[in-house]
Structures are given as C-alpha cells and as structure tokens.
Amino acid sequence: MESALEVRNLRKEYPGFTLQDISFTLPRGYIMGLIGPNGAGKTTVIKLILNIVRRNSGEVRVCGLDGLVDETEAKARIGFVLDEPPFYGCLRLAGMASVVAPFYKTWDRALFRSLCHEFDLPPRKRVNALSRGMAMKLALAIALAHGAELILMDEPTSGLDPVFRRELLERLSGLIQDGRTSVLFSTHITSDLERVADFITCLRDGELLFSATRDEILENWAIVKGAPELLTEEVQPLFIGISRSPYGFTALASNKEEVRRRLAGRGAVIERARLDEVVFFLGQKDRGTTGGRR
Amino acid sequence: MRAPMLNHLRKDLRMTRAFWAPMVFSYGAFMLVFFESPWAFLAAGLILTFIMAAVPMAIDDRYRTDPLFAGLPGRRTGLVAGRYLSWGFAVMAGLILYLGAAALLLLAIKSKAAHLVPLLSMRGGLAFLVASALAALAFLPLYFRFGFWKGLWIFAAGAVCLGAAFSFLAPVLAPPQGGETAGAATGGAFAPAVQALIRIAGEAARFPRNTASCLGTTAGLLLLAFVSFRLSLAFYEKRDL
C-alpha cells in the first residue's frame, strides 16, 4: 500500500520533554487521528513533519519524498491547519489567500472562492474579525485550495460548534474518497476519531503508545470490570491501566481474547472499549492504577 | 511558482502598502527638521530607512506568521534570502526618498540648504548605501537569532555602546589640528568628541576615489554580506518556530 506519510524514529529534544523515536505510516486515501493527553507531543509531531520545528533525528517522507532533501516538493503536497492559524489579522480573507497563493504552483483561485462560499466565509471580511471557528474554516479553505495530497490538522475541531464540527468531519471523509488524499489530524475529541479515523496513533509524554487501525483497536481492546479478588498478580500484567474502587476494578486490556480465556467463568465483565476509555487509561502516568480505597 | 524569496518580497510589499504614504510624509517632515546639518540629515535618512525596512518584520512578529511561512513550500534559505532582498529593496527606496528630499529642499530653499549639495553626489549616495548596508548586515543575524524585538534591543544597545566607545576614542584617533581649540564650536564636555567625530567623518568623505578603493570597499561589503547571510541562515536553520 503506497504511503502518504511515513514517520521513522522521529526525535525531538526540548528541556524537560523529549519526543522519543516516533514511527508510524499513513497509507494514501486514509484518515489518521493523533490522540493523547495535553503535552503528549501531538503538535510537535505535526510541526516536525512541516519542518516548523527542527528534528534531532529521524526521517519523514511525504508521498515518497524526503521531508528534508525534497523539502519544497514535499511541502507543496501538504495542506496544513495549525492550532492557532498564524494569519495577518489586518488583511481581508482574499488578501490573506493572495499572500499564500504564490507559494503553490497548483493554487486554484476558483476552488478557493468556492470553498469560501461553501464555508460561508465572506471574502471582504478581515481576518481579525473572524471567530475561532471561522478562522479554522479559512485555514481549511487555504489548505484545500491547492489540491494537497496530505492534509495535516492540529486540533481542527476544538472550539468549533457541533454543527460545523460534524460538517468538517464529513468534509474530511469526502476528501479521501478520491483515494489520493490523506488526512492526519490531532484531537482530544475521541468521538471525532470514532466517526472518521481509519487509523489511530496515540502518544503519551512523547512516547508512541500505539499506531493501529481503528477497527483493530475497537475489536482487540477491551474494558474489563470485576471484583477486587480477581485482580491477582497473574492477571494484572494483562491490563494496561487499572482503576480500583472498594467494590471492584475497571481495567483496559489490549488483548480481549487472552483476557476472556484467562478470566472465563470468574464473573468478570468484558466490554468493547471506547476510544475515550482507551485514552483515559493510557493517559495515566504511572501506567498502573488510579482511584484507590476511599 | 516564483522563487520563494521573491514571494516573500512580494508579501512584504503587500503587507507594508498602507505604510508607504506615511513613510514618504515622514521623510519630508524629518528631513525638513534636520536639514541644517548634513550629518543630521544623513542620520535622519538612515534611521527612517532602517525603520521602513524593519516594518515588515514588526508586522510578521505582531501576527506571529513565522510558522505559516516555514510550513509553506520552500526552505529556510528562501525565507532568509527573502528578508535580505526585502531589506535591500527598502534601502533602495530609502535612498530615492533621501536624495529626493535633499533635491526638493535645494530647489525650494537653495540659499539655506546649499550645504546639502555634497549629499546629492555619487559619493553622498554611496555613503548612505554603505551605512544602510552595514546596519542591515549587523541587524539581520540578530533578528534571525533572537527574533524581532529582542534582536532590535540588542542591536540598539550594541550601537549605543559602539557609539560611546567611538566617541571616547575619537579625540585620540583624530587629535585637534593646529589652531583648533577644544570646545570652540560646541560647548560642554562632549565638545572634543563631537569635533573629533566631525574630523573623522571629513577624512572619510575625502576617501580616495579610485578604482582600487572602490573595488576594495565593494569586496569588503560583499564579504560582510556573505558572513551576515551565513550567520542568519545558521541561526534560522536551528530555530524552532
């Protein structure tokens, strides 16, 4: 399967934080969601792909092009939406587009106008008069107006009203239908991922926890609930995160079948894991327990 | 798609469009204020040109657009080269405004502005260009290393320190000539330094006008430009935006 984005052993060191050798692949024509708690390194990964932040080591390939050697060509295939769109507030929308357009040889003015129309963006309005949602729409219109093959979006749905959030997600699903365009977006909103993401990559404290298909996660991972006495030393290693209470425990397991086999007939409840539960348990820093006796 | 550095120049021109008319007015107003001394006239022209060249950077800093342009097709080399090109463009525009202001003053009040005639020569224009270029070549690496405001403060502090050191050393470098007495023209404790600076400037104005000296100056400036550009690039290449 041809890949739109390949990230290999990407590393970035800051004082007090290190993004540690992240690797994942996004095939062409798919959507990947990047999740993780605050400070996990999601924005850093997106900025590293765009070379806005300089990597310490590792490799990024965009549509087969090396992100450093073929930097200009690789970036020409990317459309991006940053968390805080860095636009000139004093310009009108059309003016902002005219600043960006010359950088892309495939810029389509007619497409930009039609996207503005579709997103209800008045071209005569000034950028600093836009709400966050409108600014996000402008960023998206700019990202799409040059026929990008890879769309990178950093928290595009945060701060958006539910109606436009849903429209945006539908738009992203529509984008990949050509089999050529791929999307990587970071988010905290796990319901967005469940709705559109084909692949999910999860980070915590700069480490890659997993990168897998959504179906693989939802089918193989499980939430296990049971009485405290079930939580023996043999069973505990099966769980990634455990939440204890005086009456029992709730835990996340990445191998549903193994848990089912080991706890069969012992009164444990094994449920399909939702993404928000996965993120909750994976987000626990000590990778062990939470809660406690009260 | 044009070269990224041309796109950056175009972007800077687009963003500063609203400031063109006020800048032209400022040149007229300030030059009128400082026309009585050719040195003050030259200094006002240089400072206004520096401000004009720095405006696009201040705007980019205000809207924090560095990540946007770093993410667009192109390399950091193009961003750095674009800044140098944009600065060069501003200096040429400043030169035209500076010479234009001097010419207009001469036309309007020739009797009072006769001392500006030397500034309208090739040598006067070159002095303006060399001084502007030196300021730019010193400031731009600081900008790329520290960002706009911090870079500007360091540049200004450096210029003040250099000026103070030069004023202190000037009487030693250019001692009073026979018949000249300290404090004769300008009163106060700074009089010897001011007079010495004027003597040094006068010596510089009499710098031999031959091919070798012109080639030497050009080569020196080109070398400085190369060093400044490489430094800027080295700083900006490493910066996380």
Short summary of the structure?
The complex is a heterodimer of chains A (294) and B (241). Chain A has 294 residues and is an alpha/beta fold.
What can you see in these coordinates?
The complex is a heterodimer of chains A (about 290) and B (about 240). Chain A is of the alpha/beta class and about 290 residues long. Helix content of chain A is about 30%, strand content about 30%. Chain A contains 10 helices and 15 strands. The N and C termini of chain A lie far apart (about 50 Å). Mean pLDDT of chain A is about 85; it is low at about 285-294. With about 240 residues, chain B is an all-alpha fold. Chain B has one domain (about 1-175, about 205-240). The longest helix of chain B has about 35 residues, at about 75-110. In chain B, helix 2 runs antiparallel to helix 3. Chain B has helices spanning about 5-15, 20-35, 40-65, 65-70, 75-110, 120-145, 150-175, 190-205, 210-240. Chain B has 9 helices and no strands. Chains A and B meet through helix 2 and helix 3 of A and helix 1 and helix 4 of B.
